[in-house]
């Protein structure tokens, strides 16, 4: 028979045990979000197809046709852009979904107990569906441009995991802040918008001058995008930058998780 | 089974903002501005602005396996907070709770229901939210559907359900939660009267099945019929812990005649009865009970207002409503403050004390707001000529004198 002791200041071990115990809730919440998103109409799916294609087209026109930026090696520019759009869109939708998740589910928070970490984590899963659709689009593009990937494409799941973690860290921080300060949600679209331009989505990160490259890599999405391009297009990866990306991802994850855990106990009181 | 030791919970609230806590979220912008302000002026900001509020203070008790414990107390006595602490939704400020066994808490029916999803999908979702395993839900699925009576609409999104069906399904999922310890907040009063009876029966089954239940209610007759023990909370502290009859008597005895009350807006965003005033007049043998209420609302909404009257033995005496029996009479509540006045006829009430509970509701669907035992008044022996008002509650014959008069022959008109 399980014995639960409730005291001021949660015991850490109990929490992770609970998290495991509530894994089914995690599936169900993710399942709900996906179902709701794609249920009513075809628009949900159509949107997931049109949006990345349209964004890619615009980026290609602006950066390649107008600004005349070079591609990486032999890769066609649309594929170069699309390979970066994959993680970028996954990152940006994950971040926004996670940031709003607690407030959107406030009725759950105030009426039922479960480790609150379940909510933002399951919200991120929804973006995985969009990601899968985009992956299909990429395959289509590669067929059209007759561009064959190498064995490196098998490492893609690893970089996806890195993108997931890179989104989860700031996402946790934002969603916890959002519970307390309701104006945080206005900041997120801004971060996402700026992020598209300061991350190497429309261009290759190799055009960044060598001496700035390490600093540029402080943006964790630089490493993630480079990783995706390396896996899909081949070529060389800028290793110091990639390691920095892993480092910043871990730092953000640690910060996010810590702040989340620290404020979690008061969510039900303030939400 | 359940052991609570010196449990306390306090909140920090901004002094002076008690009235509108419902809608006052802090913003990052304000916090930053305040931070800069206080940096510039070097003022000690925290001490003056915040004050402590103890929702639950130093409460200890033990519940043995199979006990059904009623938790009673006036609004704001800390019942809901205690239940939230027990169900781990919020964390105690100090003290300790030990729970031996799997805990299920029903603080609301239909938590997490999604309007776009079908009945079937919502059963699974809601079940998972309440802590059931998928296999467990599957095993009970037919029973749940049957209890709610929604077989035909399983594949229909619940947004197309009638509101009655919606709450029936929601309660049904909750009712099939089988945990060793069950924490229940007044969720029984949903649906039409037939369904309510079914719910109460289900609760009686639960309490006789050897499971441990803590049950919050304002309805003293439900407490008396379900519970084997009763805890009375007052201002966050445990005031009385005994067998139910004694506790209920004490609860009702303590009530002073109240003819005026004020409340703060509910957090849920539903309309709230924020103020009420009661006036009784006796003239020419008739007894008028006049009620004036102020209702505040976020939006335009139609609602019934109900008054239920109880006597000093916690027995229901009667029920009065505007809107419940005739939907066209429902109150038109507008956004903002509304004032309504009603008159009840109390000419037939026996001498003794009475308690009135007000509620706003949408018939057969749900309560928007309820203030339990918010008014009380005494009916006294009429000082005037002897015949009127001698019938008294403590004769044990009931609290209403049904009018009767002498006639010549049955069936003739008078």
Number of strands of chain B: 18
Instruction: Provide mean pLDDT of chain B, rounded.
Output: 82
Radius of gyration of chain A: 20 Å
- What is the element string of chain B, with H for helices and E for strands? EHHEEHEEHHHEHEHEEHEEEEEEEEE
Percentage of residues in helical conformation of chain A: over 70%
Number of helices of chain A: 12
Largest sheet of chain A: none
| CATH domain class name of the domain at 260-395 in chain B | Mainly Beta
Lay out the secondary structure.
The complex is a heterodimer of chains A (271) and B (414).
Chain A: E1 3-7, H1 12-21, H2 23-39, H3 43-66, H4 77-104, H5 106-111, H6 118-144, H7 156-180, H8 187-198, H9 210-216, H10 220-233, H11 239-264, H12 267-270
Chain B: E1 2-14, H1 28-41, H2 46-49, E2 50-63, E3 68-72, H3 79-86, E4 94-100, E5 103-106, H4 119-130, H5 134-148, H6 163-175, E6 181-185, H7 193-208, E7 212-216, H8 220-226, E8 229-234, E9 237-242, H9 244-253, E10 260-262, E11 272-283, E12 286-297, E13 301-311, E14 316-322, E15 331-333, E16 336-345, E17 352-362, E18 366-379
Parallel strand pairs in B: 3-7, 3-8, 5-6, 6-7
Antiparallel strand pairs in B: 1-2, 1-4, 8-9, 10-11, 11-12, 12-16, 13-14, 13-15, 13-17, 17-18
Helix pairs in contact in B: 4-5, 4-6, 5-6
Detailed description of the structure:
The complex is a heterodimer of chains A (271) and B (414). Chain A has one domain (12-270). Chain A is globular and about 60 Å long. Chain A contains 12 helices and 1 strand; from the N terminus they run βαααααααααααα. In chain A, helix 3 crosses helix 6 (118-144) and helix 4 crosses helix 10 (220-233). Chain A has 271 residues and is mostly helical. By secondary structure, chain B is α+β, with helices and mostly antiparallel strands. Among the domains of chain B are: 56-102 and 179-253, P-loop containing nucleotide triphosphate hydrolases (Rossmann fold), CATH 3.40.50.300; 260-395, Coagulation Factor XIII, Chain A, domain 1 (Distorted Sandwich). Chain B has 9 helices and 18 strands. In chain B, strands 5-6-7-3-8-9 form a 6-stranded mixed beta sheet, with helices on both faces. In chain B, strand 6, helix 7 (193-208) and strand 7 (212-216) form a beta-alpha-beta unit. In chain B, helix 4 (119-130) packs across helix 6 (163-175) and helix 5 (134-148) packs across helix 6 (163-175). Residues 16-23 of chain B have low confidence and may be disordered.
